[in-house]
Specification:
The complex is a heterodimer of chains A (116) and B (114).
Chain A lengths: L2 E3 L4 E5 L4 E3 L2 E3 L5 E8 L6 E7 L6 E3 L2 E6 L4 E6 L8 E9 L7 E3 L3 E6 L1
Parallel strand pairs in A: 2-12
Antiparallel strand pairs in A: 1-4, 3-9, 5-6, 5-10, 7-8, 8-9, 10-11, 10-12
Chain B lengths: L4 E3 L2 E4 L5 E6 L6 E7 L5 E8 L2 E5 L7 E4 L6 E5 L8 E8 L8 E2 L3 E5 L1
Parallel strand pairs in B: 2-11
Antiparallel strand pairs in B: 1-3, 3-8, 4-5, 4-9, 5-6, 7-8, 9-10, 9-11
Classes of the chains: A mainly beta (116), B mainly beta (114).
Chain lengths: 116, 114
């Protein structure tokens, strides 16, 4: 069974601070995908990143960076120089990779509030 | 850029009524999904659909729920007799065969059962 744990329920930071959102996952599969989604107050799910289990390279996209460590089953997300527009709920998610129709299992989300 | 669309954006219904939530997946996609998010909680998988049949469903997806792809473009979720606890945001998603498991999510339908 797949499981995603986001231990941080809510985080508040002051604008321009860096913040890291933690994600720990469990799966029996050797091949899988990890995702991060942003859910702003308007409610839609905004795709941020996908990472497959064979690619442990860290990734940076602007102010966003992701640290994937297979040894600790973690896929953490860092926002550098946070901005008020980063305020949202962030979900980490996991999906099996083999076959066509695997479901996505979401974590419980971390609510990030960036204070001006 | 192609996207998944969902209608309506917000549906209010009385307990016991039937509702149909509609989704138009991305046109060349083959796999379709419904997820549910109760307010303040995580997004939960309901059902996946491929080749005109359900491929997997969760415990939440009981006999009150059904899915259909009636005309090759729409993908619907029907709740036969709504309960108060069905109030949630419902997300549709679709995926192509080769999209490396990236499911494209629609904007969601907020269902309120009174």
């Amino acid at each position: 069974a797949q499981k995603v744990t986001q231990a941080q329920t809510e985080i508040s930071v002051v604008e321009k601070e860096d913040v890291t959102l933690d994600c720990v996952y469990e799966t029996r599969d050797t091949t899988y995908y990890l995702f991060w989604y942003k859910q702003p107050p308007s409610g839609e799910l905004v795709f941020l990143i996908r990472r497959n289990s064979f690619d442990e390279q860290n990734e940076i996209s602007g102010r966003y960076s992701w640290n994937f460590q297979k040894s600790t089953s973690s896929f953490n997300f860092t926002i550098t120089a946070s901005q008020v527009v980063d305020s949202a709920v962030y979900f980490c998610a996991l999906s099996e990779a083999l076959g066509g129709y695997q479901k996505v299992t979401f974590g419980t989300g971390t609510k990030l509030q960036v204070i001006p | 850029e192609p996207e998944v669309t969902q209608t309506p954006s917000h549906q209010v219904t009385q307990m016991g009524q039937e509702v149909i939530l509609r989704c138009v997946p991305i046109s060349n996609h083959l796999y379709f999904y419904w997820y549910r998010q109760i307010l303040g909680q995580k997004v939960e998988f309901l059902v996946s659909f491929y080749n005109n049949e359900i491929s997997e469903k969760s415990e939440i997806f009981d006999d009150q729920f059904s899915v259909e792809r009636p005309d090759g473009s729409n993908f619907t979720l029907k709740i036969r007799s709504t309960k108060l606890e069905d109030s949630a945001m419902y997300f549709c998603a679709s995926k192509s065969y080769s999209s490396y498991n990236e499911q494209f999510f629609g904007p969601g339908t907020r269902l309120t059962v009174l």
